[in-house]
Amino acid sequence: QVQLVESGGGLVQPGGSLRLSCAASGLTVSTYNMAWFRQTPGKEREFVAAVGWNGRSTNYAGSVKGRFTISRDNAKNTVYLQMNSLKPEDTAVYYCATQRNPRNIRITGTVADYVYWGQGTQVTVSS
């Protein structure tokens, strides 16, 4: 049974940093494309970042490029999202997600392509 558990969210001032973690069980993150999405009330879930199973490819939403970094620790079977220079508009519930099959060549930002989701962690950027 696949389980993704996010942690690391919280309240931070504009310009601050947070690191989110996604601990996986039931799969090996080194063989799956892993992604982060976020959602605010009344809006659709949106893509934030993804890392390919081979570790060589990453994708970022334009709104976070240059500020957020996705990474993976295979030994800990955990995926991270380092968020720097946070803005109030980054406030959202952040979700970790992965696709159904391992070694997928398509690293997408489409919600429908991801079937396993964590419960989410709240990030609030406010002074």
What does this structure look like?
The chain is mainly beta and 127 residues long. It is built from no helices and eleven strands. The strands form two sheets. Strands 2, 4, 5, 6, 9, 10 and 11 form a seven-stranded mixed sheet that branches. Strand 5 (46-51) and strand 6 (58-60) form a beta hairpin. The radius of gyration is 13 Å and the shape is globular. The model has no long low-confidence stretch (mean pLDDT 96).
Count the strands? 11
Low-confidence stretches: none
- The averaged pLDDT comes out at 96
Helix content: under 10%
Number of continuous helical runs = 0
Question: What is the makeup of the main sheet?
Answer: 7 strands, mixed
What portion of residues belong to β-strands? 35-45%
The helix-and-strand class reads mainly beta
Euclidean distance between termini CA atoms: 40 Å
Query: Which value, in Å, is the CA radius of gyration?
Result: 13 Å
Name some characteristics of this structure.
127 residues; mainly beta; 4-stranded antiparallel β-sheet; 11 strands; 0% helix; 45% strand
Brief synopsis:
This protein is mainly beta. Helices cover 0% and strands 45% of the residues. The strands form two sheets. Strands 2, 4, 5, 6, 9, 10 and 11 form a seven-stranded mixed β-sheet that branches. Strands 1-3-8-7 form a four-stranded antiparallel β-sheet, with no helix packed on it.
Q: What's the topology here?
A:
Elements: E1 3-7, E2 10-12, E3 18-25, E4 34-39, E5 46-51, E6 58-60, E7 68-73, E8 78-83, E9 92-98, E10 116-117, E11 121-125
Parallel strand pairs: 2-11
Antiparallel strand pairs: 1-3, 3-8, 4-5, 4-9, 5-6, 7-8, 9-10, 9-11
